[in-house]
Amino acid sequence: MEHTHEQHEHAGHEHHGHGSEHGHTGGGKVTWAAAARATLHCLTGCAIGEVLGMVIGTALGWGNVPTMVLAIVLAFFFGYALTLRGILSAGVDFRTAIRVALAADTLSIAVMELIDNGVIVLWPGAMDAMLSDALFWGALAISLAVAFVVTTPVNKWMIGRGKGHAVVHQYHH
After folding, report:
1. What pLDDT, in 10s, does the model give residues 89-105?
2. pTM given for the model
3. Could you say which DSSP state residue 132 is in?
4. pLDDT band at 73 (very low <50, low <70, confident <90, very high)
5. Which of 32, 82, 102, 147 could form a disulfide with 112 if both were Cys (CB 3.0 to 4.6 A apart)?
6. Backbone region of residue 55 per phi and psi (left: phi > 0; alpha: psi in -120 to 50; beta: other values)
7. Distances (CA, A) of 9 to 20, 25, 69, 93, 157
C-alpha cells in the first residue's frame, strides 16, 4: 500500500497524538516518553519470549545454554510478532511489514537480550534456579527492568535519527 510522505506524517500524528517527538523524519525532537513507549513495546515481546523459553527449557530439564538460546530466539520472535501485528493491521503487505519490523526492532531487541541475559548469567545462582524458586522470578524481573533502563536511551537515539520505532510509526493509521 503506497502512501505519500504527508500521509505517513499525518497517520503517525493522528494515531498517537505525539507529533514530531518520534523523530521519524530524522530531525524531530525525541522525548524520553516516546523512547520509553518504544522500549516498553520491545520489552513486552522480549518478556513473553524470555519467560516462555525459560519455562519450557526449565520444565523439560534442559541445560542452561539450550534454555537461554530458546529464550532468546522466542524473545526475537515475539518482539517481531508484536510489531508485525501493528504494521499488518495498517494494510501493509507482508514482505514490507517484515522489512519494517526487522529495521525497527533488531537493535532494540538485541540490546535488551544482551543486557537481560547478561544480568541473569552474572546473578549468583540465577542460572540454576528452578521455576518454583523466588530467585528465578526475581532475577528475571530485575534483569528485564535493567534491560529496559539500558535500552531506552538506545531507542531514543535511534528514533531521533528516523530509525527503530520511528519507521513503524510511518505505517500507523
Report:
1. 888 899 999 998 998 89
2. 0.78
3. T
4. very high
5. 147
6. alpha
7. 9, 8, 39, 19, 20
